[in-house]
Amino acid sequence: MPNRLAAASSPYLLQHQDNPVDWYEWGDEAFAAARDGDKPVLLSIGYSACHWCHVMAHESFEDETTAAYMNEHFISVKVDREERPDVDRIYMDAVQAMSGHGGWPMTVFLDPEGRPFFAGTYFPPEDRGHHPSFRRVMQSVLEAWTARRSELEQQAAQLTDAIQRQLPAATDLPTAEVLTQATTTILSGVDHEHGGFGGAPKFPQPTTLEFLLRAFVLGAAESHETEVADAITGALDRMSRGGIYDQIGGGFARYTVDRIWLVPHFEKMLYDNALLARLYVRAWQTFRDEEQLRTAITTLDYLVRDMRHPEGGFYAAEDADSEGVEGKFYVWAWDDFVAAVGDDTAIGAAIYGATPEGNFEGSNVLFLPQRLSETAADLDLTDEQLTTAKSRIDAKLLEARSRRIRPSLDDKIVTAWNGLALRAFAEAGAVLDNPAYLETAVGIAEFVATHLTDGQGRLFRSWRNGMRSVPGFCDDYAAMSVGLFTLYQATGDDRWYQEAARLTHEMIRLFADPDGDGFYATGLDTAPLIARPKNYMDNPTPADNSLAAEALLMMSALSGDGSLQPHIDGILRAAGQLLAQYPNAAGHLLGVFGVTIQGPKEVAIVGLPELRRDLVSVAWERFRPDCVLAVGDGGTSAVPLLHNRMAGNGAQAYVCRDFECLRPVDNTGALRAQLDGRAAESLA
User: Fold this and answer.
1) pTM over 0.85
2) Count of CA atoms in the C-beta half-sphere (13 A) of 486
3) ∠245-246-250 over CA atoms, to 5°?
4) How many CB atoms are closer than 10 A to CB 101?
5) Percent of the chain with pLDDT over 70
6) Distance, CA of 210 to CA of 230 (rounded, Å)
7) Helices 334-341 and 383-401 meet at what angle, rounded to 10?
């Protein structure tokens, strides 16, 4: 008989609806039951694409004896970390404080007031080395709860106090020296042999790479220019050739278990692919490596093909497992590879490094041992011949793979992650002059407006099958605001500017710290938890406050609203210590901070759409992270940056900073010179 989770909206919670555990969702009902029964709360946090979450569920939560013990002695609460990032963040802090590390599944024991007193991650069903069994952990907790309650209460109070503390905000704003220091620190962690940062397990870290790319194109890395370029291109090249990238279907897995990007943990997340696709587009604009463009396009096309809801939003994730086996959908036994590719086996094996022995548990994770031009030379083929052969081989492999059982899909639609995807498709559409990508971006915006916004305009965190989950968090507002401002810049449609501006003002109302020190993750209108967290660290998506700072910066440039600057400054002061000491954890905010040093360039292009097209294309032809673009017919626009701009007989472009403008220009060469800082006149 299904338990309470049968009424949940989260696919992860629904995976547990048939457990014999008497699960509760997070909420007042669970804690009231804990108080009434004088029982501790057993909080289990995970997500649908988490392999070890599935393992612990099978070993413990599906076991009748274990479930009976849980039901007798605890109030058990199951949480989807993607649906409730606030709960996840608070209790992850507890896990890290108690054990020095964190991860999922997360297992936390709480008192009936929600205060944690013991925490860990995965617990096996039997003792394994230094890892106690789940049953032994529960027995120890119950014994302490019964016999040493006062000690637990004291520990819970101390741990809660530690969780509630915030980093002290600095008195002064960080200086440009922080950017130089951050670049040096980040470069010291580069893996020069295999690309990326650090060792195994290895994560893409797109926010750190984007900071380096922004620093490179803005000239903020002059003393390290070659090293920065090598760090960016080395990471992007090795990732796109590695097993972390789905070589035949497109899209990136979450991370690799090794240092060389070969064997992935096979789940695919929307946020990783949105961030990486955008990064590859912008890197291609900078370095003009066609492999970077190919990777960007195939990643975006993967999202459209496999991750899009029919009404326009994007699903959260694809699982690592199919048929209960991690990676089974993606890997190739040699005989299966030969059967699929046929006469092209020799070429296919050379392209993808496939062998009879395999590189992963007797099978092959497909990867590119070298760049395609090098493989073509080894096979005595032209680049064009190899490209033709590869397309033919990919089609065969993709068709054969389509007959396999796919990994399960987490089909909830998360607002913040759709904001990231919205930005990626809007920028790709503008950069590549691809109307289909722009239509995809518009579809995301309309989906969120229709399904994830209530009658009062309040955003919600996620949606699935007609059910909204909980009120949205700061990252939902900030990511959607940035995405919508980007969609406005890509289309010139005032509707998206107006909605982005509305969300930004609502973000300030709901989440801003009254003392001016950044933004809380949770809104004023939501039920309080034991702490009200603030997020400054990227993990793995851009942090709430970094996205908020970028949304505020965009709106300030487009509107001229000076009241927004103190909020930006408050974020930078609050995160100043983090930027200086742990730059790898704050790449997105560092990138935004780099633009604030001199202020963004405010670019206004006015005129009829067919007449302004060439000028607009100049604004998108290079990655210019310091440019904020307003596009329209002029005085009738809702965007203040366009007010009182005259188009003359055709189209005009105005390049400004702090609303001091260069002479308007009406041709692409003059605009390009102004945007690239080669104009003969200064801002005046």
Assistant:
1) yes
2) 30
3) 100
4) 9
5) 99
6) 13
7) 110
